[in-house]
Amino acid sequence: MTIQDKNTATGELSYFETALLFYLRESHPHMADDKAFIRERADSAAEAYERAIHDGLSVTQALQLAESVLYQDLRFSRFDTIFEVVSEWFPEVRPERRTGFCLKVLSPAETVFSKYPIDDRFESSPSYHTLTVELTGFIQFYIEQYGI
Predict the structure, then answer these.
(1) What is the pTM (predicted TM-score) of this model?
(2) How far apart are CA 138 and CA 136, in angstroms?
(3) Which of 27, 57, 76, 87 could form an S-S bond across to 52 if both were Cys, CB 3.0 to 4.6 Å?
(4) Contact 59, 1 (CB under 8 A)
C-alpha cells in the first residue's frame, strides 16, 4: 500500500487529507472547511507514517501511528454529542433540520462543555453522562428562548 502525501499539483487530496475531511464532515462539520488545519494534520500524519516505515514498523503499525496523529484531540466530538442529545430527547427538531440546528447550538453550548475536562477518552468517563444531562437542559432552554 502506497500512501501518497503530496497531490497538490493535481489538486487531489492525499489519503490522509481525504480520511480527515470525511471524519470532520461527519463529527466536526464546523471544522470541515479549515483547509490549513486539514493540510497540516494530514502532513503530520504522513510524516509519522513515513518515519514508522523507515524505523521498520509494519504497514498496519505505521497506519495506526499515523491515524493517532491524524485524529489527535478529535476523537470526542461536541457536535456528535449535541446531535445525540437532540436526536434522543427533542423529536420536535425534525431529522432534516437536525444538523443545522446542532451547528447553531454548538457555539452557545460551549459554556456547558467548558465545565468538563474533555479529551479523546472523555466519552467513556463517568462525567460524560452528567454532560449529556446538562446539555439536555441547556438545549431545552435554548429552544424555549430562541426556537428551533
Answers:
(1) 0.84
(2) 5
(3) 57
(4) yes
Cell of 131: 454532560
Whether the Cβ atoms of residue 84 and residue 99 lie closer than 8 Å to each other = no
Per the CB < 8 A criterion, the answer to whether 82 and 139 are in contact is yes
Count of residues in the chain: 148
Residue 82 has pLDDT above 60, yes or no: yes
Query: Which residue did the predictor score with more confidence, 119 or 5?
Result: 119
What are the CA-CA distances from residue 107 to residues 114, 126, 142 (Å)? 11, 24, 12
User: What does the alpha-carbon distance between residue 68 and residue 49 come to, in Å, rounded to a whole number?
Assistant: 10
105 within 8 A of 83, measured Cβ to Cβ: no
